[in-house]
Design a protein that fits this description.
The structure is a single chain. The chain folds into three domains: 149 residues, 3-Layer(aba) Sandwich (Rossmann fold); 138 residues, Rossmann fold (3-Layer(aba) Sandwich); 34 residues. Helices cover 31% and strands 17% of the residues. Helix 7 packs antiparallel against helix 8. The radius of gyration is 22 Å and the shape is globular. This is Conserved domain protein.
Length: 347
């Protein structure tokens, strides 16, 4: 099969998809998903602003203009059996119109690994034969038979770490957002009291300028003496340094290796999403216990209280005694191994 893959470069995750497709004997051409010069599809709180931006965007035909020069590339002007799109932030129907000049029976599939709550990814559903989203609430709310729920995939490369010995009781590596700073700080303090070893890193470039909203939030925190928020904003402004903060992002290979060296993974959710992070799926694939703040996780098909432990965001207490139990969590996510995951789109 000849496939055109359009996907973001984020963490080079597209390479896992591309490499597996090639290994299965398919020809795969890749085109990086970019960003629109200005984007009206964010769900701005102000409905008037949202409507005005979308009206201007469509009146000026900005979505199509973004693709005009790109579609002259020989990459698009040839026969393909399948168009495989991840996210579809810049997608416009002119892409499929161009490609169908060479194959009117072109198949199209879309995978969304972000939430429709803050951005209108689902606007493109009508242009694809199959659509899957990682967020089960989005799928339920959209209520379209064409859209299915499919969590994130995991790479076969994780299997090479199976014989790695544990060095840590708990690990977590993630960027600074949605309260992760406070959760990490509390978990690290609790681990020290319990004499447990942790590898926890918060990725953040400090100092940062506060946005107008953050400055107002900081002012309110000072008025009401909210010590947690005051400490967080002092951290953002660079007034206080922490050993668990790192400015440099981690490669996927490093995250997989560190996860292999630990008994359990700490997973923190985005309150605006009902999907799972790649971190959680990869941990289960490596037969690790997971402690997660995701209160919705019990609704998912692979949930098992023997190795997925739900904790409170405000009081993230880790019960390390649970780690003494041997588990086999990989079986619960075997359908998400990249070769099995791709079958949802190819069959």
């Amino acid at each position: 099969m000849k496939i055109l893959l359009i996907a973001p470069v984020y963490l080079n995750l597209y390479k896992i998809i591309k490499d597996e497709l090639v290994a299965e004997g398919h020809f795969v051409a890749y085109f990086p998903e970019g960003m629109l010069p200005w984007n009206p599809y964010y769900r701005y709180p102000n409905p008037i602003k949202r409507w005005a931006l979308r009206f201007l965007f469509e009146q000026r035909n900005m979505g199509k203009k973004y693709w005009v020069d790109k579609l002259n590339d020989s990459l698009f002007n040839q026969y393909y059996d399948l168009l495989f799109v991840i996210q579809g932030v810049t997608f416009h129907p002119c892409v499929t119109e161009c490609m169908r000049k060479y194959n009117r029976l072109l198949k199209t599939v879309l995978y969304i690994w972000d939430s429709n709550y803050l951005y209108d990814f689902f606007r493109n559903v009508g242009y694809f034969d199959k659509v899957y989203s990682f967020d089960f609430r989005d799928v339920q709310l959209f209520g379209h038979a064409k859209v299915g729920f499919l969590p994130f995939f995991w790479s076969k490369d994780l299997l090479k770490y199976d014989k790695t010995k544990n060095k840590y009781d708990l690990c977590s590596i993630g960027t600074s957002h949605h309260g992760r700073f406070g959760i990490f700080k509390k978990v690290i303090a609790d681990a020290k009291i319990k004499n447990r070893s942790c590898y926890i890193k918060l990725i953040a470039r400090i100092p940062q300028k506060l946005t107008l909203k953050q400055r107002f939030d900081f002012f309110v925190a000072q008025v009401f003496q909210d010590s947690d928020k005051i400490e967080y904003y002092d951290f953002i402004k660079g007034k206080q340094k922490y050993d668990f903060v790192d400015a440099l992002p981690y490669e996927m290979e490093d995250i997989a290796r560190i996860t292999a060296e630990t008994k359990a993974v700490l997973d923190t959710d985005n309150p605006f999403q009902c999907g799972t992070t790649p971190r959680l799926i990869w941990a289960l694939a490596q037969n690790k216990h997971v402690y997660t703040t995701n209160q919705q996780i019990s609704k998912l098909p692979f949930y098992n209280k023997e190795y997925i432990h739900i904790i409170d965001r405000e009081k993230p207490i880790i019960d390390y005694s649970l780690l003494d139990k041997q588990i086999n969590s990989r079986d619960s996510v075997i359908y998400l191994r990249i070769d099995n995951w791709l079958k949802f789109f190819l069959e």
